[in-house]
Amino acid sequence: MGYSDKKDLEVTVTIRSGKIADVKVQHEEKIELNATKIIPQRIVQKQSLQVDGVTGATVTCQGIVDGAFQALKQAGLQ
């Protein structure tokens, strides 16, 4: 589970054939500048959690990356 400054983010990571196949984010933020769509796409494309953030949505981006890290950690894939 990741976090933002006001609401929790729930991040689900799907692994297929040892690769990140999908990252889904559930949240209740009203303003997030599409970070909940852009950051998961970047994670899948780079196959890494080291992705560039979205200007103006730093906390949301950090929450998504942290949530994805926690999901991978729980799956034993760090």
Topology:
Blueprint lengths: L1 E2 L4 E9 L2 E8 L8 H12 L11 H17 L4
Key structural traits:
three-stranded antiparallel β-sheet; alpha+beta; 2 helices; 78 residues
Tell me the number of strands. Answer: 3
Could you report the average pLDDT, rounded to the nearest whole number?
A: 86
The number of domains? 1
Order of helices and strands: EEEHH
C-alpha Rg (nearest Å)? 11 Å
Describe this structure in words.
There is one protein chain. The chain has 78 residues and is of the alpha+beta class. It has a single domain (2-74), classed as Sufe protein. Chain: A (Alpha-Beta Complex). It has helices at 35-46, 58-74, and strands spanning 2-3, 8-16, 19-26. A three-stranded antiparallel β-sheet has the order 1-2-3. A hairpin with a 2-residue loop joins strand 2 and strand 3. Helix 1 crosses helix 2. The longest helix is centred in the C-terminal third of the chain and has 17 residues, at 58-74. It starts with a strand and ends with a helix.
Q: Outline of this structure?
A:
Helices cover 37% and strands 24% of the residues.
